[in-house]
Structures are given as C-alpha cells and as structure tokens.
Design a protein that fits this description.
alpha/beta, binds 1,4-dihydronicotinamide adenine dinucleotide, single chain, Rossmann fold, 11 helices, 47% helix
C-alpha cells in the first residue's frame, strides 16, 4: 500500500548488497512511497552485480563509494545532486563490517589494526558521510538521516564482538552530529536499533541462528523483519516525524524492554 509519504523526496541509500539487505528492502519501500533514489555501495559490492537488478526495478542510478574514502563520498554527493538537480532529503546508512569477526578473532584477542578499520567502516563512516554533506551543503532543510544499529551497543551480547563498540560509537556520532546539523539546518539524524535479521552481515555473527531464535522468544511482538524495518525508515524520512532527532529508536518487537517471557521460562523449565 502506498500513501506517497515520500513524494518529491530525493535520497541516497547506502548498503544494498542483495535482496536480503535491509537497504534493498528500504529502497523498494521508499520507491513505492514516491521517492527518487540514488544507490551506493562499495566498489567490491558493485562487482557482485546483484544491485543492478534493484537499480532497474526502481530506476535508480548506482554510484559507487567506499565510505572510508572522502574523495569517493565527495564524488557521490556531486553526482547525486547533478542527477536530482538539487539537494538531498534523506540518507540511509546501512553499512557494517567487522574485520576481527571475519578473521575469527574473539573480543579479548582483537587485532587493533582490524579494529580501527571496523570502526571506520561501521561507525566513523557516518561522520564522513555527514561531514561531506555538511561541507557541500548537500542536505535540504528538514532532511533526515538514518543509520542502523543493534542493542549490543547498550547490553552485552558476547559474540557480537567489536561490533558492539562500533555501534556504541555510531549512536554517539548520531547524537553529536545531530546537534550540529539540527542547529545549522534542521537536519535530523537517528539510529534504528533493529532486531536480528537474516542478511549477509547478520549471518557473519557467530551463533546467529540461536541469536535470532532467542530474540524471537524474548519479543512480545516477535522479531521485526527487514520489511518492517524498511517501513519504519520510510516514516523517519517522511515529514510525519520531523521533530525526532538524535535518538536511538528500538525497532525490535519489544525485546529491549522485556525482562523475560513465558516462552523463555517454559524453555528453561524443560
Ligand atoms: P548487508 O550485508 O546486506 O549490508 C551491509 C552493507 O555494508 C553491504 O552492502 C556492504 O557492501 C556494505 N559495506 C561494507 N563495507 C563498506 C564500505 N567500505 N563502503 C561502503 N559500503 C560498505 O547486511 P544488513 O544486515 O542489511 O546490514 C545493514 C546494517 O544493519 C548494518 O549496519 C548492520 O550492522 C545493521 N544491523 C543488522 C542487523 C542484522 O541482524 N542483520 C541487526 C541490527 C543492525
């Protein structure tokens, strides 16, 4: 169902790798609500080629950018503004990568070189994106920026490893830049703290299936799906939520505020 909530809005969506990606689903939802979109991802992800399908489906150009490279980001914003013929109304930052997780290094034995790279890709990249937009005055007034986070930023999930620290940093950048961009241009910046979702990045976490099942049992509404997350992003990009900024918004079926559920008690009594 479309209410054309984003009619006339123009946005950049980072991170659509394949059909499972939260960014992919969000691009479809934003398009269905009337938005015009530019898709971006790292050059290595573009070589996979999957994103071309999405590009055709929603008639959106693809402009590659490694989010740790300021020249790439500058080029992305320049080309996007040319394509749109003006400023940008919304950005989805749907990017995450842990080098230590990839290399199988546990939290107590992380390599600090990898760790720096993880923080740069997964957290400081939001600062880099915002800084580029800021320097180029690329975002329109009342623009909206959303990044994706996970509850391991606040509570311990041991196998989430260094990504917990990366998400804590991401949420902090959201607040800090949210202040400055709010004052300067009424741009709002929020994170959505999403339920575990079966995607490429998600499945990289050790014991992910157990994670998903546990969260499902611990959430009064069950886990929020990627499609649900996409719809939530649409509301945050729309003018209906224009006074919401600098928040970490839990989108998790109630998981974050549940101590225990009957389903978990029954499981423990078995
Ligand atoms: P995904 O694997 O589909 O998306 C991650 C994206 O990050 C990929 O498109 C990848 O190409 C991109 N990326 C990695 N390095 C990059 C770089 N240097 N430059 C530009 N792009 C780069 O997985 P998913 O799950 O859709 O992830 C999206 C976001 O959602 C991430 O921030 C993730 O941490 C977050 N999230 C995911 C959850 C899950 O359970 N899947 C739960 C909560 C948050």
């Amino acid at each position: 169902m479309s209410n054309q909530l984003l009619k006339g809005k123009k946005g950049i969506i980072f991170g659509a790798l394949d059909e499972k990606s939260i960014a992919w689903k969000t691009a479809l939802a934003c398009h269905a609500q009337g938005a015009e979109i530019v898709l971006s991802n790292a050059p290595i992800a573009l070589r996979m080629g999957e994103i071309n399908k999405l590009s055709e489906q929603i008639n959106a150009p693809i402009i590659g950018a490694d989010v740790t490279n300021m020249d790439d980001l500058k080029n992305l914003f320049t080309e996007s503004m040319k394509h749109f013929g003006g400023g940008i109304d919304f950005i989805l930052h749907s990017i995450g990568m842990s080098l230590n997780l990839r290399k199988g290094k546990g939290y107590t034995e992380i390599d600090y070189g990898f760790n720096q790279k993880t923080f740069d890709i997964s957290a400081m990249s939001l600062h880099r994106v915002l800084r580029t937009a800021w320097d180029m005055d690329a975002l329109n007034e009342w623009g909206s920026v959303v990044a994706l986070s996970y509850i391991a930023a606040q509570r311990v999930f041991p196998d989430y490893n260094e990504m917990a620290d990366a998400k804590a940093l991401l949420e902090s950048v959201t607040r800090s830049f949210g202040y400055h961009y709010g004052v300067k241009k009424k741009v709002r910046i929020n994170t959505i703290s999403q339920s575990p979702t079966r995607t490429t990045a998600g499945s990289g976490v050790k014991g992910f299936d157990g994670f998903v099942n546990y969260a499902e049992k611990m959430s009064p509404l069950g886990n929020a799906s990627g499609e649900d997350c996409a719809n939530y992003c649409v509301t945050l990009f729309s003018d209906m939520t224009k006074m919401v900024t600098m928040q970490n918004l839990f989108h998790d079926g109630g998981f974050s505020f549940t101590g225990v559920t009957q389903a978990v008690i029954e499981q423990m009594e078995k």
